[in-house]
Structures are given as C-alpha cells and as structure tokens.
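Structure ticket #2291
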Amino acid sequence: MSMAEKSLVYTNENCIGCNKCISACPVLTANYAIEQNGENKIVVNGDACIACGACFDACEHEARSYQDDTERFFEDLKRGEKISLLLAPAFLANYPKEYASVLGGLKDLGINHIISVSFGADITTWGYIKYITEHNFTGGISQPCPAVVGYIEKYMPELLPKLMPVHSPLMCGAIYIKKYMKLSDKLAFISPCIAKKMEIEDPNTYGYVSYNVTFDHLMDYVRKHNIKGKNASDEIEYGLGSIYPMPGGLKENVYWFCGEEMFIRQVEGEKHMYEFLEDYKERVLKGRKLPFMVDALNCANGCVYGTAIEPEKAKVDDNLYALQEIKERSKRNGRNHPFSKGLSPKQRLHRLNSKFAKLDINDFIRKYTDHSKEITIKKPSREELDKIYGSMEKRTEHERTINCSACGYETCEKMARAIYNGCNTKNNCLHYMKNMIEKEKETAEELSREMHEKNAIIEQKNRKISEVVESVANDFGLLDKSIHEMAAGNTNNAEESTNINLLMMKVVDFSDELKKALEGIETLTRSLQSNNEEITNVADETNLLSLNASIEAARAGSAGRGFAIIAENIKKLADSTSPFRSQPTRHSSICQSRNILLSFLYNNQVENTEISVHNASSNRLALPLSSSPWSVTGMPPIQQQAHSAMGQNTLLHGKTLLVIPTADPDHITLPLFTKSISGYFRGHALLIEGAELALVIHLDELLTAGGGEGDVQLHLDQRATNF
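Resolution: structure written out below.
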C-alpha cells in the first residue's frame, strides 16, 4: 500500500510532527517522518501498521484517524441487504442505558438477528481447552486480539506455531451462525476494535463477517440520525464469555473450568505486550519452560476500552464496573449449567463439553500466514551503523548512547536503524540539529565579523562618495546659475536678432534697387557698344580709303604727292578713332569661394556661429555688364594702357559682370552697409569684384552674437577681401 493512499489508520491534517506517535508505536517502520508543505509530518505506513491504536493514546492533537465499515453498513441496510449483528460484549458495558434502544432502532432499519459475541467466546474457551488437552499444546498464545496476531504474522513468524489454532470469539460466533444456525445473512460486527477489520479481511477467516462497525462511528451515526426503537436484546444465552473484554478475561474462563493450578501468563498493553513477545520468542527458541497458555491483549485495559470506543469513555472506569456486573450475572446458581457457581472446575468443564458436544472442533480451527517476507525491517551492519552515526555527528560512544528519545525512538541505535530503513532522517535528531545550530552560529559569527569589516570599508567609501556628491552638487549649483544667466542673455540676444533681421530686410531692398540700376547701366552699355561698332566701321572704311589714296598717289608719282598727303591724314584720322574701338570682351569673375569663419564668442552667443555669403556661381545675379575700357590720359596712343582688372574664370552665366577699373581703389565710395545688418544671406548674391577693390563693411554689430541662426558662412573672393 502506498503511503499516499489512506490506510486503515492514517494521519490527518492535525499532525504537527511531534514524534509522540513514533515513541508509542511498537513497529519501527510503521511511521514515516516526512516534510509536507514545509512542515514536519509523521505519516502511517499502512503495510507495516498493525492497528494497535497506541498512536491514538499518545497523540494529544488528535492527528490520527481510522477507517471502518459504518457508512457502507447503513447504505446496505437502506438497499435492503439481509444483515444480522454480532454484538461485542463490551457494547453493553459501554452503553448500558442506550444498549436496548439502539438495538431496537437497528432492528427497525432491517437487522435480522442479534447475537452476542459472548456466546462465541464460550465456544472459544471450549475450543482452547479441548485442543490443549487433546494435543498437549502448552504455551500457546491466545488470539482474540487481531493486533497481536498481526504483529506475530509480520514481525515474529517464529511464534506462529505458538498461536492458538482456534478462532477468536468473533469468528467462532460467526461460524456457529453460518454453519449451525444456517443463516445466509451478511454479518456485521459491532466492535470496540479498529484492528478487527484486518481479521475480517484476512483470507484465513473466509469472509464470514462483512462489516466492522466500531462503537465510536456507530454511535455518532445513531445520534446524528436519531436511530432508536423499542428495546431489543441479543438472542442467545451466554456464560463467562462475557468477560473476555476485560483484562485477564480468558484466564478467568480457563481457571473456571481447569482450576487455578494452571499457570496462565496474562499480558496487556501496547508497549508491554510486544516487549513480552520479544522475550517470549527467545524462551520458545531456547526451549525454556512455558506457561499453560498466554492471555494476550493489545489494549492495557482490555477490549472494553478498545481502540474504537468513544474517547470520553476511555477516561473513566465506568466500563469496568459495568462489566463486573455482567460477569456476576453470567454465573448461575443451578448445578446443571457450565457456569454454575456451586460446581467444581472439573464438573463445569464436563458440562461445557456436553453443551458443545454437537460442535466439530475442526470447524473452528484456523491457520495463519507468514507476512514477514512482505514486511521486512532491514538490520544494518556495524559498518553501516557507523556511517549513519557519522552523518548524525555522533563520533563517540557517549554521543551514540545519549538516548534522549526526542526523535521518538527509545535509543539512538533505533533512530539509526529507522534512518537505515528510510523512515526517518537525521534532521529529526536533536543532537544533530544542536550541532548544526552551533556550527551555523560559528559560521554566522564569522560572517558577522566579515560583514563588520566590509561595513567599515563601505562606510569609508560612503564618506568619499558623499564628498564627491557634495562636490558635484556644488558644481551643479554653479551650472544652474550659469544656465539661468544664459537664459537671460538669450532673451536679450533674441531681441537684438529681431532688430538685425529688420535691418537685413533694408539691405535686401537696397539690393533690389541696385539690381535695377545695374540693369539700366547694361542698357546704356549695349547702346555704347552699338556706337562703338559704327565708329569701328567708319574707321575701317577710312583706313581703306586712305590705303586706296596711297596707292593712287604712288601711281601718280610726283603728280600724286599732294594726294599722298591727303591719304596720310586720312590714316591718322582712322588711327585716331582706334582708342574708341571695343577691345575683345573680357569677362571678370569671382574665383573659387572662400569661407571666412567668424565665431561669435560674445554675449552668450550660439556656439560656432558663422556668417556666409554663398558661392556666386550657385546664387549669382544675372548681370551681363560690360563697359569700354577707361584710358589714362597723357599717354601716347601707342603706350596707352587700360588699367582694367583682367577677369578669369568667368561666371557661367555667359555674360560679363560690371568691371570697375581703377588704379586708385582707396577713393572708391561704396557705402553699402551704413548700419549693422542681419538676415538670411542665402537669399541674394551680392557680388562685387575689382582689381584692388576694398569692400568696407561696418561689422562691429554684425559680429555681435545675437541668438541668430548658427552656421552662417560668408563666402568672399580671396583676392578682393580686405577687412
């Protein structure tokens, strides 16, 4: 059976892992210590458990529960199943006032017959004595208690031959009903014992009984469903079998029939019972003297205080007093009854045999099964124990025999064996946990020292960081102040930029007017060019005429000398017009553009601010201007020199620009900018070029940063720039 399944006895949600159940349990491997949801729990190994109920007595947290057949019993009654009752003699002792009405209520629900197991106990007594005397079977262990039988079958197979081979009172009563009363009803046992379910389900009991209905669960159901009826009672007379539930009840029955000369060993109690069996096994194996029989009961106060009675009933002695009264009522005064007071043990036995003379002893003989191979408790070797002790920090003999029992086991060796069998862990050992705590304490102290040292280092670093933070805070304060100052300056610069922009608009207007003027000059220049061409034509014709005159004069010889003089004068006239001829048109141009970077580093300027006039080739004015060269007077015609600026790299607009030839650039009056200017220079191209032209621009305010557009560039010809 898996521990995940509910066994006959199981652990409920009340468990806190206190280990008391381990200390009370007679089976080493019946309890497993596990960790469940972070908490220690002790769960039941159903295969190993013998349902002795010791854990119920030990646990003050009511953390153990059990299963029986009460619910199924009532469900089958409702379905109309034919069921008869076998009533434990302890039921009357536990419920003397409710006994009759409860039985009446069960009768009303459909119960057929009610037979007291006390009658079955009388058969068991008869069977024990008959078997012992006929087979000289001394030293046998009584088997009414299924917990004792289960323990021997699982853990002491050596004692199986010593178990009495006669059925328990319950099974003797069931066999009598089935075989001698010929009832086919299902049988339900009203029981004070959890372990009776194991006996009922044992293949060696042949399924005679179908239900184990415990006192506790039955009475809970009866009260919840208000089950009661007309008083009823059991149907078969019985004798001293009624005292089987009390400690020594079997022994008193044997004494009643065999005399007190017999030595009967009486043993009760979960702890004492199984310690006795251990010793008894040694006695049997060594062939020592044995008692006539052993009256063995698992429960210290007998079945009348069995494992399945109501808890409050177990706290008082009322049951014992009630059972004592039942015992006295079971004795008779007449002389023909096996339970007559006035007879000798021999006479009583004779009458008992006569009463059950029709019974076949073989019908009540049972067998047992060796389950020890199915449920094994491994025994570790000395080397394996040493290894386990080592893992538990138990190095010395003293440490291995502390035997504090805090783990639930009586000795450290049992704890080690439990660990070896996998049903406990070293973490449940108080000594081990104490050592671990001490080690952890030492480790914690060492860590504390290390942390203290690290904290000192961290504190020192924190101080340095604080100093840096303070310094940075001061710097940010200064930066904040500077930003506020820059913001104030930028406000002023924005106003100045507005003013400069207005002035720049005036410059644009001036440029437009200049363009119109230059267009007029172009018109006049074209007119002068036309006149110049006419003069040239006249000069050419005059020269041709002079040439013809000279030729004719030469032909005439001396007669044409006067005509030659006229031809010479005509030539002079033609030469005198040559200065007014147009020279080959020459185009002046601005060479490659140059950048002058003027950084505005004044009055919170925008960084890297530049003024630029773009390349004339891309933003040129289409001014096809030309004029006749201006001559310098006072020079012979053959030496006259035009002081024109020779233009190269003409602009690609196909026409020449205005050329201002002069050898005296200092006297050029060009008041282009009489005020500070600002604007978007890329809008217009203002191109002025001359041989030694000085362009005078008042840039004092222009170069003053005013929050204007950044990256403005001024492109000027390299040759003609003198600022």
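Closing remark: The first strand starts at residue 9 and ends at 11.
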